[in-house]
Amino acid sequence: MISVIFDLDGTLVDSEPNYYESGRLTLERHGVPDFTWEQHARFIGIGTLETLELLKEHYGLRPPVEQLLAEQNAAYLELARTRTEAFPEMRALVERLHARGVPMAVASGSSREAIDAVLEGTGLAALLRTVVSAEEVERGKPAPDVFLEAARRLGAAPASCVVVEDAAPGALAARAAGMACLAVPYVTDGAADPAFAGVGLLFPGGQAEFSAAAAEEWLGSLGAGWAGGA
């Protein structure tokens, strides 16, 4: 049987507005008052730590990156617990796969505390019990570490895993891990990114186009033995 590994932010849940706001507040606190959504969008799919390392260098911020990370995580957690929504069709896919007994995990660039807050707040925690944060591995996406660790915890061979992702770094990480990928770009203008060229199933219109039924049928076609019905 296949195992399915979900990215969290922008894939399962629409948390990017919370990440933008928490990042904007953190930068504003340190003298950068005009950080825009367009600037934030360049970092979608990259872990918070890696993003802050790049922003620290770009803006010449003086505090250590560990302090910036703690500040942004604190701001994000306040938002995450109450303002995060799961994408309806993604929730439906998780529920369908759970009903079939498909092994599932979450592998995210977020902190473990942030992941847990979002899963609890959206009610997905009961369905997705295997969780890997980029904090727990050596390298974040586009390196394959989080996906390989998720497979290890599921007891699954990488070749039997399918990654569900929204961003180019995640698609590259899935490829590097030797896993198939189902891609639902959060930023639909990026659907033509070469990183998505080799994915198994692409919904170029993003969440507006994504269908749990279509995704389930495709997953079944990979040899799971349950395409077309429960």
UniProtKB/TrEMBL annotation:
It comes from the Bacteria. Pfam families: Hydrolase (PF00702). Gene3D superfamilies: HAD superfamily/HAD-like, Putative phosphatase, domain 2. NCBIfam families: HAD-SF-IA-v3. This is HAD family phosphatase. It comes from Streptomyces polychromogenes.
